[in-house]
Amino acid sequence: MPHGADEETPVFVISVAAQLSGLHAQTLRSYDRMGLVSPGRTAGGGRRYSMRDIALLREVQRLSQEEGVNLAGIKRIIELENQVEALQSRIAELTEELATAYAAAEQAAAAVHRSYRKDLVPMKQETALVVWKPRRRR
Questions:
Q1: For 48, which DSSP code?
Q2: Spatial contact of 49 and 39, defined as CB atoms under 8 Å apart
Q3: Which helix H or strand E contains 20, and what residues bound it?
Q4: pLDDT digits (tens, 9 = 90+) for 33-82
Q5: How far is 49 from 10, CA to CA, in rounded Å?
Q6: Residue (of 17, 61, 19) closest to 39 by Cα position
Q7: Over the stretch 68-122, which tens digit does the pLDDT of each residue have?
Q8: Is the pTM of this model over 0.85?
Q9: What b-and-e string marks burial along 52-62, b requiring 16 or more CB atoms within 10 Å of the CB?
């Protein structure tokens, strides 16, 4: 990988991506047209594949060859995996927000407790006599 690039950085031309994935370049073009793998594009329109794209191409090949899944099924699997990933990311965000809200609530409760008057003295609870007078009926 080039310096400063990560697995999402589109760097590989189609011929290199074909070699790395073990597929023919025409197959990569076909997968791109079908929306199975969507590589980045250069200003001139050339395809550039990332390491994530290469891994996805390998997974498409594995599902097709070893599992016997057709390309429409593979596309649906990819869509569902992307949806799961997005939902997991959202859950992580919401969990973080919830933790922040809990911390803020605890701080607010502590501030209220600190504001209580210190001169109040707790008293013993004793038995009390309550006189009840029922209302007269009219």
A1: E
A2: yes
A3: helix 14-21
A4: 999 999 999 999 899 999 999 999 999 999 999 999 999 999 999 999 99
A5: 5
A6: 17
A7: 999 999 999 999 999 999 999 999 999 999 999 999 999 999 988 888 766 666 6
A8: no
A9: ebbebbebbbe
CA atoms within a 13 Å half-sphere pointing along the CA-CB vector of 85: 6
SS (H, E, C) 89-136: HHHHHHHHHHHHHHHHHHHHHHHHHHHCCCCCCCCCCCCCCCCCCCCC
Q: Kindly state the tokens that stand for 40.
A: 């980045």
- 3-state class of 12 per DSSP? strand
Provide mean pLDDT across the span 4-26. Answer: 91
